[in-house]
Each structure stands twice: as C-alpha cells, then as structure tokens.
Amino acid sequence: MVVVAGNHEMGPEPPSSGPRAAEIEAQIPWLLDGDAAIRWQTRRDLLDQPQDAYTRDRAAVSSTGWGGRLLGLQAPDGTWGGGLYGPKWTSTTYTLLLLRRCGLDPTDPDARRGVNKLWDGARYFDGGLTAAVTIDLPEACITSMYVALACYFGVDDPRVDEAIAWLLDNQLADGGWNCQTVRFGDQHSSFHTSISALEALAEARRVGRRRQSALAAALDGGREFFLAHHLYRSHRTGEVVDQVVTRLSFPPRWRFDILRGLDHFASTDAPWDERFQDALDTLLRRRHRDGRWPVQQKHAGRVWFDMETTGGPSRWNTLRALRVLRWVDRAQAVHTGHGPLRHDHPVSASCQNSW
User: Fold this and answer.
1) CA 99 → CA 106, 112, 119, 271, distances in Å?
2) Tens of each residue's pLDDT in the chain, 355 residues
3) 125 bridge partner residues
4) How far apart are CA 180 and CA 233, in angstroms?
5) pTM reported for the whole predicted model
6) What is the DSSP letter of 134?
7) Of the candidates 259, 263, 262, the residue with the CA atom closest to the CA atom of residue 248
8) Exposed (0-12), middle (13-18) or buried (19+): which is 255, by Cβ within 10 Å?
C-alpha cells in the first residue's frame, strides 16, 4: 500500500511492530508535509525506507527550504555571519551545526569550505583547540563541535585525529567532560559539554576514524555519566539540576536538554537501562494532545530566521521524539529478550540520527 501526504509519496506504511507504532504512524503525513530536512529523516528513521527512497528529499536540503536558505547566506570568503564562532547563532560554527542537523550532503563543497575555515582559524594547544583569541588554552565544547563537523563533512586533516585524541585524554573520571576543566580545574562533568563531546566521538566512530576501541569505551563512559544522573538530576540529591533542561528546544545550540540526550542515545542504539525511564517520562509529558511535541524555548541570540514558532507544534521535536520512542521499543524488547539485536537498523547505522 502506498500512502500520499500532500505532494509527497510516502511509500510503504511504517513498520507496525512496537507498542507505540500507531502513535508514530499517526504523525507521518504531517512530518512528510514539512521541510526536506524533516522528510528525508522521517523516511529513513520512522519509515525504514531504503536510501534510494529518500535520496531526492535529502538532496533537496541544499537547494530548498531551511538548508537552501542557510547555504545562500554564506559569504564569498566561505564564512557565515561575519565570524567563526561568534556571533551566536549566525556564525560559521552554528550555521554549519544546523546544516549538519538538517542532514546536508556531507560532500557539499560550500559546507566543506566553511569547515576548513573553522579549522584554519582555530588556535591549537596539545591537540585541543579554541576559537577564542584571548585564551591560550583548549576548550572541550568548541573542540567537540569542530570534530563533529570535520567528521561529518569529511575533512581529512591530521589535526582532526589530534583533537579526537585530546578529547579522549581529557575525559573525566565520572565519564563526562567539562569546558571549565582546563582553565579552572573543574572535575565534575557538565551536561552541556558532555553531550557535545559524545556527539563528536560518535560521529568519529561512525566514519571510522582512528582508535575505534578507545572511542567505544569513551562513549560507554559518557553514557554512564548521564545515566548516573538519570540524564537531568543531581547524582547527590536526586533533584532536577535545572528545569531548563526539561524544556524542549531546537536548535539546541551548545546546550543540553533531555530530548537532545535521548536522541543521542537512540542514534547510537544504546542498550536499554531503567535509568532512562525518568527522562523518557518527562519527554512524554511534554507531548500535546494531538500527539506532537512543541518548541518550548529558544536560546537567546541572533538568528538567520525562525524555523518554527515557540509554543507551537514542532516537526523537529516531534521527529526526534518519535525516533526516541522507536529506539525505546526496540531496546526494551532486546532487554527483555523479546526482540532481535538491530545493528543494521538505519538509525544505529547512521550513528548520528539526523545526519
């Protein structure tokens, strides 16, 4: 059976397995009426369609909608917004991070030119890097962002492997990372820094960079850091560390929230652990009666344009939340011995589920 949503042929109906299959299926037509960035990821991650079924939509990211607009704003010198890291959120760094989340073709020459600008404009210390001109120390958040972009867009530069090694060497004893460690000696990890580092290392592992065993071990350690906090609680008191992390945003920029965390663990096909349940329950409470998730907050700063309206239904957050639910169904089935391991699943195979 073929289902048609708007002007976009959906192809086969979504897989019916899993306890949440019906609620996922109900949102498919609405998602496929969205931007090309939403459509191609819906086809891959929610419909399990083969690559040739979403190639056209993914290719359209570079010429239409959000992706086309962002690429059209690139300056002749290959940068965006007049700067490499600032201003937030129109700089080269944050524009490229958004294009990555849109799933722009990793071979896009304009994006690669922008990534090379970042790496050529950074300052390097012991393998780590910074975009700051006044601080002579490496910074874990920026190193992570640049590694993620370099790995995704296929930048072949020995400095990338050196930066990956620096991240591996600077993982803290609790399993995470903190951008304040090098400058101020902080030894307890930060949610914000740690999710950026995990996304970068997952991307490095996906594309086959060096030290695969070390990357896998670091990802396991980072997962345990978040699980020890149930993704958003103090490991000492059990209290929510900051209510902001329970509110859904997009784009997340450099910040952590529960959906960004769960989406990462879904993308790496992490095994189920009961300590995920708390964050999952909070995510489910954020869903509106129509089965869609909103954008609850946007991070203050300059933007090129608004993708979605705060408070309104969000295709981005709905897509990401439904990906999480599919992973939960699959991971719980494996955990209880009622489902097969899914190493061939399109989400786990991509390792970073929107790129």
Assistant:
1) 10, 11, 17, 29
2) 333 333 444 444 455 578 899 999 999 999 999 999 999 999 999 999 999 999 999 999 999 999 999 999 999 999 999 999 999 999 999 999 999 999 999 999 999 999 999 999 999 999 999 999 899 999 999 999 999 999 999 999 999 999 999 999 999 999 999 999 999 999 999 999 999 999 999 999 999 999 999 999 999 999 999 999 999 999 999 999 999 999 999 999 999 999 999 999 999 999 999 999 999 999 999 999 999 999 999 999 999 999 999 999 999 999 999 999 999 999 999 999 877 654 444 333 334 444 5
3) 128
4) 20
5) 0.93
6) S
7) 259
8) middle
Helix and strand counts by DSSP (H, E) for the chain:
16, 4
The phi, psi pair for 300, rounded to 5°, reads -60, 135
Write the CB contacts of 224 (distance below 8 Å, at least 6 apart in sequence): 175
230: nearest Cα among 296, 192, 282: 282
Query: Which residue from 282, 349, 283, 351 is spatially nearest to 320, judged by alpha carbons?
Result: 283
**How distant, in Å, are the alpha carbons of 195, 224, 231, 248 from that of 260?**
8, 16, 10, 8
Cβ atoms of residues 14 and 25 within 8 Å: yes
**DSSP reduced 3-state for 192:** helix
**The pair of three-digit structure tokens given for residue 26, joined into one six-digit string:** 């109900």
H-assigned helices in the chain: 21-25, 28-32, 36-45, 51-60, 65-72, 92-102, 109-121, 140-152, 158-169, 181-184, 191-206, 212-228, 258-267, 277-285, 315-335, 346-350
